[in-house]
Specification:
Helices cover about 90% and strands about 0% of the residues. It has 7 helices and no strands. Helix 1 crosses helix 7, helix 3 runs antiparallel to helix 7 (about 160-205) and helix 5 packs antiparallel against helix 6. It is elongated. It starts with a helix and ends with a helix.
Amino acid sequence: MGSCGAVNTLFRSVITIFVSIYILLGRRSILEYMGKANRALFKERTSMVLAHYCKRGNEIFFRFVSSQVIDAIIMGTMVGITTWIMGIEYGVLFAILVGIANMIPVLGSIVATAVISFITLFTGGFTQALWFLIVVIILQQIDANVINPRLVGRMLKMSPILIIFSVLLFGEFFGIVGMFLAVPTVAIIKEIINDQIEYRLAKKDKVA
């Protein structure tokens, strides 16, 4: 990926996050409009099913974004503690930057870490910048593979393995934006499949 491609991907990721926030803020009016269109366009049974999954999709997306905000706070706090222990200048500012950037899959944390390491190189010297880079990379790996999957999994009732797999799969086909949207998309698909399984099992039990 060239520098222009990386910048474009980062830009799209930031736009995706802001759009997601605006959708969450206006989700009631959006749901009301979709509900009216749903009742106008579809038959009653189809309309009820669609309304149910629109409502569940809204709840899942809200929980997912909330979990990402909590994860950003956790990551920012860990980086803040690290900068305080290492005596790095502008530690609070760096912690906030990493926390916010952590909401952008892959590129966000990489760019933030690179920028902070570069600044630390001039304010604290090569050794301090190198140690900061090593510690933050370790923290990012712990967050990406342990903290974030468990946190999101608990809020969305999904397996951490399924979360990691869905992020990797969507990232392969749809890039960074796909990685951000992977978990809520798979969560609603999982719910639809589970409902269908329960429905078919209930029908079989009635027949039996």
